[in-house]
Design goal:
alpha/beta, 6-stranded parallel β-sheet, Rossmann fold, single chain, 17 helices
């Protein structure tokens, strides 16, 4: 159905140990009925892509997939009363809970896999699943359980004060969209569900996308035995590139934490200024366009928001991708899409980027936020095409080893079967419950 400080989480858990490496488990060949749940974003991003790709992957494998989705564009159509109620809905969305219960009662899924619940689905939906005996898997696409802004980024730097102190720090700084009220709503939701131990008791298994992400959540109190590592994948293999143009590419949101400002500063330092294509959009677009015009950077071209198919074709033609993010990314779909195309990556030496891109083998690292270091790495890459071509071939091999849809599917099935077999839920209620 389409509708459309380590104690912070408590200390209980009721799921058998789940190991980060589950490749050794052989999946059984049987058809499952799976409920996928996702709150879509106004500006489509990596989470939306992963949700759709994994849905298509499961369908192609012959499973019965039921989907429950909400979209943030619904909020624009809310009347004043509905908007006033939104903070409460973020805490516990009764309409979503009722609709999910109805779906469960009618469809009897074996498992519910959540991608994003913020803000229109809410963690209250986990309770609906538990009451009907449906185990819950939650993919940790970002760090919102730890940071209301979900990025660990503030004032141009990595910030982990909400982990080191309390969520009140985020409210004081107005970390979510520069608003103390909006940030307070998220902080209240997180505090409420921590107090209820929702994250501990109502989720049977968490999927972290990298070891870096898994360690962050463990350090903050989620039980290690509930968190497995399964990376995202590129669902349709685009094939390796067979020709290149003399240009580099940036793909991403035009916001401070994504590092585009650092990249443009680095580009100004390059002799001859090779061509740079910039794909994406975001709140700082006009700022960056004005900067490029002011410094007469004629070799920098803004391509706008490119649909995924044409974007992959653009990616396959460039010499390398630049991924200058300055925040803790949980994964970075663009990185593995580049690998699939045989394109090496120049990436920040930080978190997931450092884990995914191997310096000197599948790309190059530079110091996050350091335009001089980035310019040096870009300059070297531009003058060493043979070495960068070799890195592109290694990147393609890395994709074939770790990031294919087949690899992703096998790991996902291992997780699903482990959860279904090991996490015994209460008896299904005879009638639909209300909150």
């Amino acid at each position: 159905m389409e509708r459309g400080e380590g104690e912070m989480f408590g200390a209980k858990g009721n799921c058998p140990t789940l190991l980060g490496d589950i490749d050794h488990i052989k999946p059984e060949r049987q058809r499952m009925k799976i409920l996928l749940v996702h709150n879509r974003y106004l500006q489509p991003g990596g989470e939306d892509i992963v949700f759709q790709d994994e849905k298509n992957m499961l369908l192609r494998a012959g499973h019965h997939v039921i989907t429950y989705t909400r979209h943030n564009d619904e909020i624009a159509r809310y009347d004043p009363l509905q908007k006033a109620y939104l903070p409460i809905s973020t805490l516990w969305a009764r309409d979503s809970c009722r609709e999910i219960e109805r779906l469960i009662r009618n469809e009897r899924p074996s498992l519910a896999h959540f991608h994003n619940t913020f803000p229109l689905i809410s963690p209250g939906a986990y309770y609906s699943c538990q009451q009907w005996g449906v185990p819950v898997v939650q993919t940790l696409h970002n760090f919102r359980l730890l940071c209301p802004a979900a990025t660990f980024f503030r004032g141009g730097n990595v910030c982990e004060e909400c982990c080191e102190h309390s969520l009140l720090r985020s409210v004081w700084y107005g970390c979510y969209r520069g608003s103390r009220v909006a940030t307070g709503t998220i902080a209240l939701m997180l505090a409420f569900h921590r107090l209820r131990e929702t994250w501990m008791d109502k989720v049977n298994c968490y999927i972290a996308l990298t070891n870096h992400s898994r360690n962050k959540f463990i350090d903050s109190g989620l039980p290690a035995e509930k968190i497995v590592v399964k990376s995202n994948s590129v669902y349709a293999d685009p094939g390796s590139r067979d020709q290149t143009e003399d240009c580099a590419l940036f793909i991403g949101r035009f916001s401070q934490e994504k590092g585009l400002g650092t990249l443009l500063s680095a580009w100004r330092l390059l002799e001859g200024r090779p061509r740079l294509k910039i794909a994406g959009d975001g709140p700082l677009r006009q700022t960056f366009e004005d900067l490029v015009a002011h410094y007469e950077m004629s070799n920098v071209h803004f391509e706008g928001q490119i649909p995924r198919g044409p974007l992959i074709e653009t990616l396959k033609k460039v010499r390398f991708l630049v991924f200058p993010s300055e925040c803790h990314e949980s994964f970075g779909m663009t990185l593995v899409e580049s690998f699939a195309c045989g394109v090496p990556v120049i990436a920040s030496r930080l978190g997931a980027m450092e884990e995914i891109v191997e310096d000197g083998r599948t790309g190059l690292h530079f110091k996050p936020g350091d335009s001089v270091d980035l310019a040096a790495k870009i300059g070297w890459a531009w003058t060493h095409p043979a070495e960068m071509e070799a890195m592109g071939r290694a990147a393609r091999a890395e994709y074939e080893l770790k990031y294919t849809a087949e690899h992703n599917y096998q790991k996902l099935m291992d997780i699903y079967r482990w959860v279904i077999a090991g996490c015994r839920a209460p008896q299904r209620p005879a009638v639909e419950t209300q909150h």
